[in-house]
Amino acid sequence: MSADPLDLGLRAQAAAIAAGEVDPAELLAAALARIEQRNPALNAIVETFPERSREMLAAAPAGPLHGVPVAIKDEWPLPWRAQRFGAAELTAPTAPAESGPYRALRDAGAVIVGVGNMHELGAGSTGATSYYGPARNPWDPERCPGGSSSGPASSVAARLVAAAVGADGLGSVRFPAAYCGLTGLKPTFGRAAMEGHHMAPTTSLIVSGPLCADAADCRLLGAVLCGEDLPAGDAAGLRIGVVRDAVSEDVTPDVRRACEEAIEALREQTGGEVREIELPDLEPATIAALLIINAESMGGVAPQQLNDLHPELSPVARSSLKYRMLLPATATVQATRVRTLMRRRLAALFDDVDAIAWPTIPAPAPPLEAPVVELPSGPAIADQANIRGAALANLTGIPAISVPVGFSDGLPVALQLQAAWGADSLLLDAAEALERANGRRWVEARPPLAEATPMEA
Asked: What mean pLDDT is predicted for residues 180-197?
């Protein structure tokens, strides 16, 4: 066992508590102390509530996460805190409540130790903008941690907690997992707890999802969020589909090399095969997903609310919210037609392959002050480049997972795998097979800010 239980993964912490090797009250106190020590350099956690956390621990049932401290994104209400979406003020009021992810964690015996920062209103893949100030990447605090689940990812990568709950509307679990060197699962739409989310009554894209150090920890937390087991297999004979498109080719040389090597290692480990496949209209699918999520986010918002926006909302957020009111209904109708088309194509495609593989991100984390990446096609805003590989899973509802597969100039890069509806377990199996293939080299790598500080030593 690690000298410090906080450095253990999610499963190991839960097992150590269950075996009586670790006292959960001491673990909670240590987690709060580590947040106090390490978080100033990260801004990953925007609020802790020690008394509430201790109350959760005192009432915690003997579930699979009994006594384990976790973080939750600033996207769901807690009984003592309203969600704030990393923003100065929302377009509709929120209030403290028992959200679905909160209940799932509570019923599993977990202890919520803090709320994770997030990109303002969830409207970005970098984490560079937040009312609380940006969260920072533990691999390099001047780099983006990914968004919009920026704080949850940063807090896990820096080992403030062993796991965190994020949300994925257009890649918002997978991007920060990739930037921070974690494993992040976007479950099949409708499978994971979402009650209490500001958009839950209308969303057809957003899901809650786990951010953890490795796939097995994601399986455990994912099962808690889904309320059902995600049984383990071995992904034997995995048929991997690769697409020769901008999403896989307009990426930096390091990303391309790492992902191609990972795909070959996965093929060899599972005794499977790699097949080149065609998946046309990825760009229209991305546009369709953007149209739908923007339209759905305005449910219940009146024009007057947009005229009274808080002055501390960023100019980008203010203009984006007002722009959404101008979206024509015909555009959304067309977007739903594209969704239907892409679902039919995927249904046929998954008769021939088990998983689709391409890079999660086209380049490693860009600087916070200038979130721009250099690609073979030229410089690009990170948000525009990132979404090309992420939106399809949200538009169609299929599950997807991001797995670390290497480094570029000391920053993590990642491979994304997508599978058919309900095949979340298969993605986790494939991720574990990839970990075995590379000797867990990437999932066990630690960023500098995950090392003990003099105060902790």
From this structure: 97
